[in-house]
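Bench notes, afternoon.
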Amino acid sequence: MSGEGKFFTTLGADVETIIPGGIKFDSATSVYLTDAAGNAVYAIGTTVPGDVAGYAKGCLFVDTDVADGTTGLYVNVGTTASADFDAVSDA
């Protein structure tokens, strides 16, 4: 990920990178916040990522291409080496 347009702020004990306007992670995803190791912590896109590296455990992903009445919020319950996003629901 390019360092262009990034700025740093302290969030808790780690330095996080906030990326105004986001940067493309792949063709369907933009990353807006990363952890100190460069893994995505908050991302938005049209396709929920599959079993890929680069998303921190606990990363929130917002799917902008879902049907009305369907949740678009997902959380990585996998690892940074192998993401596994589960839908977040109120149930």
